[in-house]
Design brief:
This protein is an alpha+beta fold. Helix 2 runs parallel beside helix 3. The chain is elongated, with a radius of gyration of 23 Å.
């Protein structure tokens, strides 16, 4: 059996969280993105919104395999902000994500170690609030169902998808109801058997291409 490909996760929606360390405010903004250009737009937008802040440090990881990464200390001592933020994203196994941490200086210097802890903690705690999307390579399975059985099969397919890490796709109606699921390729025979069992052997899936699908985390 072929081992399924593994890809870094991403986050479902933007997250903002604030951390206060010795009167300095660290506001972490985490935003899902699809490209370096989109990440740069997010950074520019945060800088415009928080124009009066001392620093807007950033880190991003992009690409299906997380193979593109950039970071910026934005005036903080070299290596105390952007790289620690980037290390958190790497450690969490994430991609297609940009983190911007806005700092309002509180009058007390934190030192290099304190800055590293503050910036990395700001990103880490924001990620604790994030809903993850798991990236999976899934196979399209389409099932055509007579209209009379569509409601029952609809419920059965949705339950099966939830239990097997699959994604329920679109439903189209014509001479029959056509259901699309995106399933792990390794269990396509199991899907066919379960479908036959629930339909008394009257239904068989037609398989299509594979694609990368974002599946909500647990």
């Amino acid at each position: 059996m072929t081992t399924p490909s593994r890809y870094p996760d991403t986050i479902a929606t933007p997250i903002t969280r604030e951390l206060v360390v010795k009167k300095s405010r660290f506001i972490a903004h985490l935003v899902p993105v699809r490209s370096v250009a989109e990440a740069e737009e997010v950074i520019a937008s945060v800088r415009r919104q928080y124009w009066d802040a001392r620093h807007n440090c950033s880190a991003m990881v992009t690409g299906l395999n997380g193979d593109q990464a950039r970071s910026s200390d934005d005036g903080e001592p070299s290596g105390t902000a952007g790289i620690p933020m980037l290390e958190v994203l790497r450690r969490r196994g994430l991609t297609d994500l940009v983190a911007v941490v806005t700092r309002y200086f509180g009058g007390v210097k934190l030192g290099a170690g304190g800055l590293i802890r503050a910036y990395s903690t700001a990103v880490s705690e924001a990620l604790d609030d994030a809903a993850l999307l798991h990236r999976r390579e899934l196979l399209e399975a389409r099932v055509d169902v007579p209209h009379a059985d569509a409601g029952r099969i609809d419920n059965a397919l949705r339950e099966w998808a939830t239990a097997h890490g699959a994604s329920f796709g679109d439903v189209t109606y014509g001479t029959s109801a056509s259901f699309a699921l995106w399933i792990p390729p390794a269990i396509k025979e199991e899907f066919a058997a379960d479908l036959a069992a629930v339909s008394a052997g009257s239904l068989l899936p037609v398989y299509g291409s594979t694609r990368i699908v974002d599946v909500p985390g647990d």
